[in-house]
Structures are given as C-alpha cells and as structure tokens.
Amino acid sequence: MARQAGGPWPAPRPVPESCEVQAYLQDCAALVEAVAFPSLVVDHRWNVVMANGAFETLFRGVRPHSTAMPGDNFLRFVLFHPDAGTVLGDHEAGWCLPMLAHLKAAVESHGHDRELQAVRRDVAQDPLMEAAYRQGLPHWIRAVGEAATRLDGAVRLLVHPDPRRGPTECRIVDETPPTLQEIGCTRLTMVLRDARPSTAARRARRPRGTGSHLTVVPLPED
Questions:
Q1: Backbone φ, ψ for residue 56 (5° rounding)
Q2: pLDDT grade, residue 43 (50/70/90)?
Q3: Cβ–Cβ contacts within 10 Å for residue 17, how many?
Q4: Which of 29, 60, 91 represents a domain boundary (last residue)?
Q5: Residue 161 and residue 170: Cα distance in Å, rounded?
Q6: Residue 167 φ/ψ, nearest 5 degrees
Q7: 110 plus 203 within the same structural domain
Q8: Domain shared by 53 and 80, yes or no
Q9: Do residues 46 and 68 share a domain?
C-alpha cells in the first residue's frame, strides 16, 4: 500500500465520498506503491493523498516540521521546510519559483479556498518570498517562458540519501488518469536519472539550517 512519508499510510486521504471512488483509490494506491521511483498523488491544494515507499525514502532525512512535511503538503514543504534544499537541488530556481507559480495559479482558480489562502498569507509574511511572488515571479516567467512552470517533463535536481545516487536528476512525469483528474487529483512521478557530473553536485546542495525561504529574488532590470 502507498505510504505517507514518515510512516504507514493505510488508506488514501478523504476525497469525495463514493464507494466506487474509494475502491478506485485503493487500487491506485497499490499501483503507486509498485513504482520504483518516488511517486505521489496530490489534490489541488498540494495535500498528499498518497505516496509510495520510494517517496518516503527520498525524504527520510528531513526533520519534523509542524506544517511543512513532504508527506502532508508538498507545496508547503518546498516553500517552508528548512531542509527542503538538502533534498531538492537548485532549490530556489528549480523548485521554489515553479511552485510559487503553481500557488499563484491555484489561488486564482480557487480564490476562496482557506488552505490556499493560508499558504498565501505565509508567503506574504516572508519579505523575500513575497517580493519573489509579486515581482520576481512575473519577471522570471517572462524570461524563461510559461513552459518552465510546467511539471510534466521538467528535469529537476535531487540529492538522494542513497550514496550510490547522491546528487542526480529526475524527470517529473504527470501520470494523471481521467478518473483522478475528475476528482481534482494529480499523480506525479520523479523518474530518477543517472548521476550527473560534479557540476550538478555543486548546484544541488544548499546548507542545512539556512531556512527554506528565498535568498535571491530575480527582479526586473531597470
């Protein structure tokens, strides 16, 4: 059965109640668990509905956090967990800015959602992250194009806890079938690739304990 990072996950999180949907999700959880690569299913708030053992292994070294564990809400983990950069390589450009773009899109689509609004308020409390959201993000999207915000097909850096892998690349593959899409869920799998050269290692790791907030905000040039 698919697991939540940090412990057993006996059943998917609540979704629209229906025996047929629940049975489908149970089978989907078995399928997710069978994948060798880190794989998870999230709802539109980025709450983790299910995740497999490979996902748990990838994030097994992160410290406990009250609101930003990877197996609870992946958006919050990327933006707010102080250990996020120790696993997610090239953290700011590769993960934070794209996820801020997804937050912006989700807030625009679900403006009255309390959980999304709570994430937006937490972003606003960090001056650099708020500047990135309001100013840096639009400039970044204009510079790199909308395609850079898409998850499906994106190649991102990871620092895997298995020393045989270490700093490596993954390609994010969106494997969402129509039934999951209908109930507002998305399935994402991080397909691990061969380890990259030492340049990837230098880009991948950010010192532990520096916080998960942005340190550099790409702003428009005058």
A1: -60, -40
A2: very high
A3: 7
A4: 60
A5: 14
A6: -65, 125
A7: yes
A8: no
A9: no
In this structure, which long-range contacts are made by residues 23-31, counting pairs with CB atoms below 8 Å and at least 24 apart in sequence? Answer: 24/179, 25/49, 25/50, 28/180, 28/187, 29/1, 29/2, 30/1, 30/2
Same structural domain, 75 and 22: no
- 21 and 77 together in one domain: no
Over residues 136-191, the pLDDT tens digits come to 898 988 888 888 889 999 999 999 999 988 899 999 999 999 999 999 999 999 99
Q: What's the half-sphere exposure (Cβ side, CA atoms, 13 Å) at 218?
A: 13
Residue with tokens 């532990």, as numbered in its chain: 208
Whether residue 166 lies inside any domain: the answer is: no
Whether residue 69 sits in one domain with residue 18: no
Residues 69 and 131 in one domain: yes
Alpha-helix residue ranges (DSSP H) falling in 95-162: 97-109, 114-124, 127-131, 137-144
Domain ranges, residue 108: 62-154+196-208
Asked whether 89 and 157 are in contact (CB, 8 A), the reply is yes
Place of tokens 């950069």: 85
From 60, 84, 99, give the residue that closes a domain.
Answer: 60
Quote the CA–CA distance of 84 and 35 in Å, as a whole number. Answer: 23
Both tokens assigned to 42: 């999230």
> Which residue type sits at 136?
G
* Dihedral sign from CA coordinates of 112, 115, 116, 118: positive
Per-residue confidence (pLDDT) for residue 49, from 0 to 100: 96
- For residue 18 the two structure tokens come to 């229906």
